[in-house]
Design goal:
Layout: H1 13-16, E1 29-32, E2 35-38, H2 42-53, E3 58-61, E4 77-78, H3 86-93, H4 95-118, E5 126-133, H5 136-153, E6 159-161, H6 163-170, E7 177-186, H7 189-202, E8 206-208, E9 215-217, E10 223-226, E11 229-232, E12 235-238, H8 249-252, E13 255-265, H9 270-276, E14 282-285, E15 292-295, E16 301-308, H10 317-328, E17 337-348, E18 354-358, E19 362-366, H11 372-387, H12 392-398, H13 408-427
Helix pairs in contact: 2-7, 2-11, 3-4, 4-11
Length: 429
């Protein structure tokens, strides 16, 4: 099966429940614009929207379809913050920049809420999130997370849940505690992306599908080549993320595509759904190789995990992922799995997003490392600000230090697979 590399949307629950969207034309011939955006996921659609609203002539090149990559197939969990805590980020960039990064992370949540409301994007947005502890070590880690966020950032609202409270909230005997965050949440990621793209088009942006960028000629007026034509522009915004591939080798080594996989069950009864996630939050466990799950609008269980660092798709996803789900919820042993799919996200070595420039007028943002639902919308806005001449906020992200994955393109995956084997073993202890 190929749930990752089909030319059209993956055979997912998201695609099956997507809001209506047009089939957009391929680029044919040569066009000119102010800004060419490469990639029509959340980052690219957000950048196009913010620029078009300011009167810029924007062309978006999408290699497949709007939302084809991680933006349209992820777990849909909108989690405040980053993959590293405040103190670790401060050790990378200093406390002043760490505070700016934290504040912009909070802004990303407000930006999503405001954008969904302003453009009437129907994407099942809901707030509330749980991080589940399986063993005492996890409880201590969650307590430390709560203390750090409250002490260092003044973040309010986090609640530690007891064993009894955690099991009541998620309906599973597997967990011994949890950390509740009312400000994080979940949504239908493909419908959110489609809504952003439609809003960008309404503001004047032009989106071409099935028009992959194959080469960028740098200069005062960069020229982007596609199979059907070219785009000449003043600025380029690269939003290819895990599907950057060979388009820009100078930054490709700073990220690595990682596969993650999801199943969707048949619709559950209201009673069953409420017994599994009482208050309809997004849920993750805190293993290094984590599981994540939530309820869809029609009460399906959406269950994800089983990360692949090797690039290989697990055999028979419905069975393998179904077995993982039933380890947590044995009460779903007779529940049918209707959909199974996967896709790539991009991670960095330090698990912080990678922003920067190539030359003076080519911007990029990628490597969101599992926090893309919120941070990608912000990334698009910040790159739009930079194009308009106000790059201070974008530059805070660009100061995060990044290294290439050891071993280069050929050896980085085997090296990471070996490292991940250690962490998988640690999850069992």
């Amino acid at each position: 099966m190929s749930t990752i590399h089909n030319d059209r949307h993956a055979d997912s629950y998201y695609a099956a429940s997507a809001n209506p969207a047009p089939d957009r034309a391929k680029l044919q011939g040569d066009v000119s614009c102010d800004v060419c955006v490469i990639g029509a996921g959340i980052t690219g659609a957000s950048a196009a929207l913010h620029l078009a609203e300011q009167g810029y002539n924007v062309v978006v090149l999408e290699g497949r379809q709007v939302g084809w990559g991680a933006s349209g197939r992820s777990g849909g969990q909108a989690i405040i913050g980053y993959n590293e805590g405040f103190r670790q980020i401060a050790s990378m960039v200093g406390r002043d920049d760490a505070k700016k990064l934290w504040d912009m992370g909070l802004e990303s949540k407000d930006l999503l809420s405001q954008t969904v409301e302003k453009h009437n994007i129907q994407c099942d947005l809901k707030w509330g999130h749980l991080m589940m502890a399986i063993k005492p070590r996890h409880v201590r880690e969650l307590e430390d997370t709560k203390e750090e966020m409250e002490t260092e950032t003044g973040y309010k609202g986090l609640q530690m849940l007891s064993k009894a409270e955690a099991r009541e909230r998620v309906g599973s005997e597997k967990y011994i505690g949890a950390l509740y965050d009312p400000e994080s949440g979940h949504l239908h990621p493909l419908n959110y992306t489609l809504g952003l793209a439609a809003a960008a088009e309404s503001a004047g942006a032009k989106i071409y599908e099935n028009s992959p960028a194959t080469h960028i000629q740098e200069g005062n007026e960069p020229v982007i080549t596609t199979p059907g034509g070219t785009v000449r522009c003043k600025h380029v915004i690269m939003c290819a993320n895990a599907y950057l591939e060979k388009l820009e080798p100078r930054i490709a080594g700073k990220i690595m595509p990682v596969g993650t996989f999801i199943i969707a069950t048949e619709p559950l009864s209201d009673e069953m759904a409420k017994s599994l996630i009482r208050d309809d939050e997004g849920v993750v466990d805190v293993n290094f190789v984590l599981n994540y799950w939530r309820l869809a609008a029609d009460k399906r269980m959406l269950f994800g995990g089983r990360v692949s660092y090797s690039g290989l798709v697990p055999f028979d996803l419905k069975t393998t992922m179904g077995n993982s789900m039933r380890e947590i919820y044995p009460q779903l042993k007779d529940t049918k799995v209707d959909y199974a799919w996967g896709g790539n996200v991009a991670i960095t070595v330090n698990r912080m997003p990678h922003f920067g420039r190539v030359g003076k007028n080519i911007y990029f943002a990628h490597g969101f490392s599992g926090h893309g639902i919120l941070l990608t919308g912000l990334a698009g806005k910040l790159m739009a600000e930079a194009v308009q001449g106000t790059a201070e906020r974008f530059d805070v992200f660009s100061r995060i230090p990044h290294m290439s994955f050891p071993g280069g393109a050929l050896m980085r995956k085997p090296a990471l697979v070996m490292a991940m084997a250690y962490f998988k073993l640690r999850d069992l202890l």
